[in-house]
Amino acid sequence: MASAGRPPLKILLVGSAGVGKSSLMNRFVHNRFCSRYRATIGADFFTKVTELEGQRVTVQLWDTAGAERCQSLGMALYQGSHCCVLVFDVTVAASFQAVAARQAEPPNPKLFPFVLLGNKTDLPGRQVSAQEAEEWCAQTQAQYFETSAKDGTGVALAFQSALQAALRQQ
Ligand code: GTP
């Protein structure tokens, strides 16, 4: 499918290992879920052509590796991207703390849009409340969404918001 003659919107997914970045991308791009875990090495990207605010846009979604040893790639990937999707697992408190710590990484966070996703809401044993995440967002000007890559809850809405933020940034 041909896209409009504008450069692709580049969206980066960031978060600790295993929080569900690849799964969210797979849900958004292919509407599929796989319960098997395959760690991302370095970074992967997918392209999707979609309709946004009456325009056809090409989106490049970058899935970064959560593993500590791969995080040195982080800064290079921020270059040229239009929005960052920060992902944590609502059942793992440390994954929320890790995301909050990474927020300072881009050169100018005030000018660089973020969207925060609390994923795996389908699971029991929640450790991070929606209120806690929303309070963090209120300080950082990011929007918060609750998602489940497994059952699809909230995924379309969260990516739509990220795309809109990216479009405004382009
Ligand atoms: P890295 O590549 O290591 O950074 O991991 P990742 O953040 O890409 O996580 P990934 O998508 O590979 O998911 C890790 C595991 O969690 C897999 O077994 C997924 O099936 C599972 N998973 C991801 N999202 C969800 C979800 O919303 N609900 C449930 N129950 N499991 C999920």
Automatic annotation (TrEMBL):
Listed GO biological process terms: endosome to lysosome transport; phagosome-lysosome fusion
Keywords: GTP-binding, Nucleotide-binding
A single cellular component GO annotation: lysosome
Entry superkingdom: Eukaryota
Transmembrane segments: none
GO molecular function: GTP binding; GTPase activity
Protein family membership: Belongs to the small GTPase superfamily. Rab family.
This protein's name: Ras-related protein Rab-7a-like
Annotated gene: LOC101349773
